Amino acid sequence: MSVENIISHAIVRTFSDKLIDALNIDVAIVGGGPSALVAAHDLALNGVKTAIFERKLAPGGGTWGGGMLFNEVVVQEEATGILKDFGIRFQPIPGNPGYYTLDSVEMASALIYGAVHSGAKIFNAVSVEDIVFKEGKVNGLVINWTPVERLGMHVDPLTVIASAVLDGTGHPSEIMHLATEKAGINLDTPTGKIIGEKPMWVDSGEASTIDNTKEYFPGLFACGMSANNVSGGYRMGPIFGGMLLSGRKAANLIMKKIKK
Ligand code: 48H
Asked: Which residue of 54, 166, 217, 256 has the lowest C-beta tally within 10 Å?
């Protein structure tokens, strides 16, 4: 075989093996933002078969750009343990105990590396366009290549079967919209519907992001900004402790559910 052939062969074979292995998993995560990356890391580290499907080429979601493209973010004391778990460095904000700044590029890359290195699989440039909804239960995801989605090509998707689905799609809560609008699911919210995100109130938004991280329907969980949007929490801007802690909470809730 020529070296050109060896390279192509090896890539097609190893990728196919990876994708086939991910067609039936414990946890299917939609979106590769900070909350989802922490959840994937914790799940995989505990032996839970986990894959992330991320629409963009680069996972990391809203972490890369810091605040208004100043590529630094803030994290509060409660979440520094997670930063340490991923080897992310941080420095105190002088005169403001309990708050730290960190390089958002270091955070994004470390979260991605940590998730993959702990055994989670990330499929980038893959968009989730629907859920599998059988006999009243969420059973998995319907996936397609992002370029197919973007070009509006009429190409049928493939499916991933999973014991639990985690919506980590950020502000739009895409999976929850599919659940309510296409599957007619009543979510665990006061109205059964998506309440919608409120304006900026940092401390309230940080606390509610964690509180709102939960199972909204059997087999369907939400974390991060998606959870906050579903339950009507306030936004918080470029502070990320709530996102990291939400990912950790989601992983713990899912592990408890799966073990049952
Ligand atoms: C595949 C998809 C799909 C889909 C979306 O928004 P994210 O960074 O996620 P979170 O919730 O972990 O973090 C939120 C944070 O970044 C943020 O926005 C904050 C703190 N905002 C505060 C404020 O006041 O504005 O990432 C979500 C990811 C993205 O990478 C999307 O591309 C991806 O999900 N995604 N992937 N299929 N259908 N929908």
From this structure: 256
Burial class (CB in 10 A: 0-12, 13-18, 19+), 247: buried
> Which one of 53, 54, 209, 249 would you pick to mutate in the ligand 1 pocket, going by the greatest count of ligand atoms within 8 A of its CB?
54
pLDDT digits (tens, 9 = 90+) for 48-83: 999 999 999 999 999 999 999 999 999 999 999 999
Structure-block tokens of residue 157? 């998707």
Residue 248 in contact with ligand 1 by CB distance below 6 A: no
Centre of ligand 1 from the C-alpha of residue 177, in Å: 15
CATH 1.10.275.10, domain 24-259, yes or no: no
Distance from the CA of 11 to the center of ligand 1, in angstroms? 29
Distances (CA, A) of 254 to 72, 220, 221: 31, 9, 8
pLDDT, residue 259, reads 83
| Extended beta strands in 12-167, E state | 24-30, 50-54, 72-76, 91-92, 99-103, 121-124, 126-134, 137-145, 158-167
For the CA of 171, the closest atom of ligand 1 is 6
Contact 73 CB / ligand 1 (< 6 Å): no
Whether pTM > 0.85 for this model: the answer is: yes
